[in-house]
Every structure is written in structure tokens, then in C-alpha cells.
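Q: What does the assembly look like in three dimensions?
Context provided by user:
Components: two
Sequences:
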Amino acid sequence: MKTVGIVVEYNPLHNGHVLHYERSKALTGADAVVAVMSGPFLQRGEPAIASKRARAEMALRMGADLVIELPVAYAVQPAEWFAHGAVALLAGTGVVDSLCFGSESGTLEQLLPLARLLARETEQLQAEMANRLQQGDNFPAAYAAAAAAVFAQGEHDAESLRQMLARPNNSLGLHYLIALERLKASIKPYTIPRESAQYHDQVPGSASIASATAIRRLILTEGLQAVSPYIPEYTLDILEREMENGQAPMHWERFRQPLLQTLLTRGPQQLETLHEVTEGLEFRIRRQLPRLAEPTVEALLDALKTKRYTRTKLQRMLVHVMLNHGKARMSRSALAEGPGYLRILGFSSTGRTLLKRMKKTASLPVVMKPSAFEHPQLDLDLRAAAVYAAGCPQPLLGQLYSDYLLPPVTI
Amino acid sequence: MKTVGIVVEYNPLHNGHVLHYERSKALTGADAVVAVMSGPFLQRGEPAIASKRARAEMALRMGADLVIELPVAYAVQPAEWFAHGAVALLAGTGVVDSLCFGSESGTLEQLLPLARLLARETEQLQAEMANRLQQGDNFPAAYAAAAAAVFAQGEHDAESLRQMLARPNNSLGLHYLIALERLKASIKPYTIPRESAQYHDQVPGSASIASATAIRRLILTEGLQAVSPYIPEYTLDILEREMENGQAPMHWERFRQPLLQTLLTRGPQQLETLHEVTEGLEFRIRRQLPRLAEPTVEALLDALKTKRYTRTKLQRMLVHVMLNHGKARMSRSALAEGPGYLRILGFSSTGRTLLKRMKKTASLPVVMKPSAFEHPQLDLDLRAAAVYAAGCPQPLLGQLYSDYLLPPVTI
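A: Here is the predicted structure of the complete assembly.
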């Protein structure tokens, strides 16, 4: 059974995702699809619009066969660690033979040789990085520029490479390829062209494809019906049910009070112990808090933002602060050990067959019942799910720990 | 100018408080009244129904002349430290010559000699205390029994003393007297009889007097108009305004999310560093959290309660956890230093005269502009006010730090 892996957030699952899913299957000739999906908090440092169970259900309804949770320790990270965690999970199943991701460039021609070089992380690359960061570049910009400088043949080539890597999906794709190299995974990479512009669109574009960002914004401002042209019917049904149950739509402002309370009651010394609170941001937080235009997460992000700190970096920092993620737990050496388990969020009947095969092939423990498994990363996932649940419009009775008691979603 | 001191919470100010105020003036023959008032969090470990500014305004409208804030480091403490902080502030003004408090016994006859003995905190008392606590008594019960055992002449006398001290206002009064002894304050104590039963009444009693607890419950369940027989018109007006502005009514459930987030994301080791998290309560919290009937503060208190831990002790612990009050800052030696300043929350025209006199008489700095003064206890007051403000139904623009920017209330 040929099996393709995809890495997703489905926030929420929309028509563009369905297209990617179908093309991935067609391009790789796969019979089954394994999706690695982020839990309650996402790569750009935002809470997902609906719970991971609801989003896993969407994935299964679309046709995915197995949904594996990317632990929060990897899910809320820069491209490098996000990709490393996701690829390690796909490789860990022992049943995935290809990986298909969207990229603006739509080809691996430039990315593959670059990944082979960068996987070794030469001293030259590190020196270039340090140099750019010192000049005040933010991390993604510094990485793109350093990689281009190290790899390119001449000035013109370097600039075109730098521009290519400045596109978010090219950059993420590069890191999937680097992770495949480093993990020596026997998984064949594929890419499908996608327009990065869609991602940042605030207003739906033409036809039936709109970016997830635009869709979330529409849901929050105009309600669920407004996005029906852009999402499959099952996404609509599932979101409708979650909203009726007071479990969605979730967004940053629902965490305003715990986030402000944490920042207000912890001095710079305590904040500095947390992941991503770096380079004096603890003092910047202290200085900016009393000057907030209003007590909202949005106002806080505005107040903290500088050229050096992207909104994404700041949002991720706020997630780590809110979840009390200490620096030691999130250190490079801790993350380099990779995810410690395959947490199954849901599976189809084909997924059940994959799970049977995985009893022999998986190099990581398969976790169907989280309450019967112990791992420090799983503790963090539990925290994240409980804090997320506590932020719901109507937290359900006994819901805080439901993540650890309910079996995977099946359809 | 004869000046009487009173210690209040005004949660909210009701007809019973007005009666106490008038009797205090009459009994002491005072021309002016100084009220020491708790800030946003109260002695029994609860958020006040309205902000300290609103409550200071009620006090001034009633006729109080000067309202001084009891720092949160003393306000959310057992009777011993609460009384010590309050009496130290009254003594620190240098203008207060009497203190009048309500007590169930209505006389100082038994309390005064007891206070003189207990102020020395003999080894015998400490041994008796340790003994009772080890037998599983909670702190107030152990103290009452130990004090009775040390002081009483014979079995019968001990039992009647123990019963007398079991009444909350007698116990608090005893600690005011002990504090006066220890601080060698030249302030003459008076007491006025009050019925303790009223305090715990859940339903308003006869006539126009109802307990603050009953009044708060009525406001939350039936609205403000339901309590108009029990509160002065200005309390009604001020509460109405605060509710219209989305600043009241405040109660524990408004802090559900930050409290749960704090407990969910901090392991036992981190919780144990906080004040009042003692005797393994950090493990009890960890065990009980996943078993909550619903994600509410009420359910949490129910789950944590045992014979040994009174609801009050647990509520205070939750305040300290939410405000991140470390054990070191709240240690006996830190508290024994006393409050470091007189924070003026409001004053009348007579209060202005008192403030002028205090320029010569006060033994503590008088703080009219908190932003121009630095003290670790004031930092804690700032935190408390900001966390309180963030929990309001509609946190106002720039309100989080308004406590530090607005001048005292005047009428």
C-alpha cells in the first residue's frame, strides 16, 4: 500500500486543502494518506479555530486515513523544528513512503541541492547567520540571506535564491527536505505549486479558494455561512456543531485574561526562563504593558512588534509564556531528540490497516490511549489541550482533560 | 481633632457598616474617621465585588474622612497578619487615637487580658498550637483552643473561652489588640457588639440589615434592585454606575480562566514555591484537577476542601497562586516588617486636614501618587489591581494600570 505523508494544520480545512490532498495522492500514486497535524496551538503562534478532535474529523471526512498529532513542543516552533518534528513522525510510522508539500516554487530543482548542503549546517552558514542577526535581521530573513550567500554562484543568483526562500512555503519545504536528509528517512519528497499570496490574503480571492486566514476572519466578522463557498460541507457541519456547543470559534482574544495575568504577575527574571523570551524581550514586555492602548492580545502584539521581532515570533513567544514552556524543555538538544511517540488523533478503515502494519514497522510507540502512556512531551500536550479547553466560550463539564480520556476519532 | 480608626472591606458598603461607623464615632467621640480598607482581594480570599476606588468612594460618601489601602500582602492573610498590617497603618498615621471594631462578645473584658498574654507568644502557646495542628485542627480552631488552654483557669473556663474565640469577629478583634500591644501603639481600643450570624447568612435577615455575603449573592442572582433595602443610596448609585461600565459585579468565577491556566501549566514543584501552598496541597491540586465536575473555581474549591483546609484558607491560597505571591515575599520575617507606606485611596475635606497634620506625624511615607513611589509591597498592589482589572466584564482602555495613574478619590 503506497502511502503519502502530508503536514497540516487545517485551521480550518478548506477547498485549497482538499485540492492539495487530491493532487498529493495523484502525484505520488498513493493508496493511503497519513496527515501529521498540529494540536491546539499552531506554527504561527495562534490557537486553532477549533479543537484538534474537530479538525482531525475534518481530515478524515476529506479522506485522510491516519491523523497523527504533532506535539506542541514542535508545533509552535520556527520552520526548522516544526519540519523536523513532522518529518520524524512520518518516518517513525515506517509506512510512509512519500511526502508531498505545497511550495511557491512548485519544484524541488533548487530546493533539493540546497537542502543537502544546509543539512550539514556548515560553519560558513552559521557565521553568515550570526552576521545577519547582528545587523538586526529577523530569523527567517537572516536564514534566507545566509543560505543564499553560502549556496549561490554570484550576486544575481544569490538575490534570486534569497527571494525564493523568502516565500513561506518554500522555506518550510526546504526544512522538510533538510529534515529528511538529517533523519536519513527513506521517504521520497514531492512538491505541488501553491500561491503564497493566498495565505496572507485578508479577503477571499476568486472562485472557491480562499486562504485559511481570510476564512477565519470572515467567520469571526460575518459568521459561518459567509465562508460556505470556500470550505467543504463537512467542515461547515463540524464547525457549526462546535460553535453550537460553545467550543468554537477560538482565537487569541479568548486567552486575553490568562495571558495578561501571566505577564502582569511574573517579573522579567521569571519571564526570561521561558522559551522564546530572548534578547531582553522580558524587559520590553514590562515597559510596554502599562502603555497598552487597550487590554487585548492585539494591542500587546502591536506594542511589542519591531522590525526585528516578527509578529509570528512574538505570537509563538506568547504561546510559550501562556503554556509555561521553560527554556530547558525547549532547548535545541531536547528538540533534537525528536518526538517520543505517535499520538493517533483519528483513523479511517484504511487507517486501521496502517495501524496494524505499524505494530511491526513503527520506530516510535503508538499512543491510542494517552492516559496509559507517559512522556514529558505528552505532558506538554495535555497542558496545551487543557488550557485551550479552558478558553472555550462554554468549557464543557469535565472537558479540560477530555483530550486524555477520549479514544481517537474514527469514521 | 479626635480621630477613630476602623478596618473595613466594604464589599459592598451596607446599612450595617453605616451603623458601625456611626456608633464608632459616638462611642469614641471622634471628629474624624480613618478607614483602612483592603484593595481588590479580601481577607477571606475573594475578589471584591467592585474596585477599591468605587469602594473608597462609598466610604467617603458615608462620611469617612481618609481611606488608606491595606496592602495585598496583609489584606489576604489570616487574622494575625491582616490585623497586624491594619493596626500598623493606623498607628503609622500618627493622627489616630482610637480603634473601634465590631465583635460578637461586644466587650473587651476577656479579650484585653488575653491579648496582653498572647502578644508575647509564649512557648506554651506555640507547643499547644503545634499539638492541635498535628491532630488535624485547622489554624483558627487550633489557635482558639491553644489560647484558651494557656489562658483559662480550669476546664469550664477554657471551653467558654474557646467558644468565644471561635466567633470570627472576636478572633479578629483579639488580633487587633495583640497588634496594638506588639506595636506599643498609643491607640485606645473600643468594641461594638455585632451578631456574627449575619455575616454567614445567605438570605437577608429582618429589617434593613443584611450581611455582605447575602447582599452579594442577591446582586448576582437577582440584580442590584433586590438589595436596595439593605444598602445606602450612594452604594446603589456607585454599584449601578460600575455595572453599567462593565466594572462590576466581580466574583471568583470571573478569574476562572487565569486561575485554571496557572494551575494547569505549573507542576507541583513550581506551585510549592507560592504562599499558602503548604503541606502537599500542590499534589492535592494535581490529583484533583482532572476530576473536577466542571471547570469552575467553585468546583475546584469543592474538590480541594477537607476538614483541615477551610474554604477561606483555600481561597486565600488561590489568590496567592493567581497573583504569583512567592513564599519568600510573604514570609513571617517579611510581614513582620510591617507595611512600608500609607497609600491614600481617598479623602474628604476633613481628610485633607488630617493629611496636612500627617506631614509631621506620620511614621510611614504617605503615597498620593503611586507612580512616584517605589516599594516591593506596592509592586504587589499594582499586580493585584491589574489582574483584577483584567477580569472585569469590560476591561476599560488603559485600565490595567489606572490604579497607578489616577489620584485619590475626593468628595
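Follow-up: The two ends of chain A are 20 Å apart (CA to CA).
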